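[Q] Does anyone have a clean C-alpha cell version of this?
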Amino acid sequence: MSKVAIIASNGGLFDAYKVFNIATAAAASDQEVAIFFTFEGLNLIHKEAYTQLPMPEGKEHFVEGFAKANVPAIPELVAMAQEMGVKFIGCQMTMDVMGLEKEAFVDGIEVGGAVTFLEFAKDAEVTLTF
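[A] Here you go.
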C-alpha cells in the first residue's frame, strides 16, 4: 500500500478543501494517508474553528458556487476522511504554544510531534504541504 503524507499548516477555508479533497481522494484510492496539523492548520480540526473557517477576502462569490456544486461542508469532509481511515496528527508543540488541549479537537486525533509525522512520512510516495 502506498502512502500519502500531508502537512496542513494554514487554516483557511480554501486550505481545508485542498487538504481534505486530496486526503479523501488518496484514501479512496486505497492509499494510507496521514495529515499533520500544525500552527493555523490546527483550525481545520478544531471543534469550534472548523465550522467557521474564513473565506479569503474577495472570494465571497465562491460561497454560491460551493452550494450549487453540492460541495460538502468542512465538518462533513473531516468525518468522511476519518471514516476512510485518514490518520490525523495534531502537533503537540503547536498545541502547547497555543495552550490547546486534545479535547478542543475532533475526536480520534493523535497528538504527536514532528518525529511522529516523520515516522509515517519517511517512506511516503507523495508528500504535500498546504
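[Q] Thanks! Anything notable?
[A] The chain has a mean pLDDT of 96.
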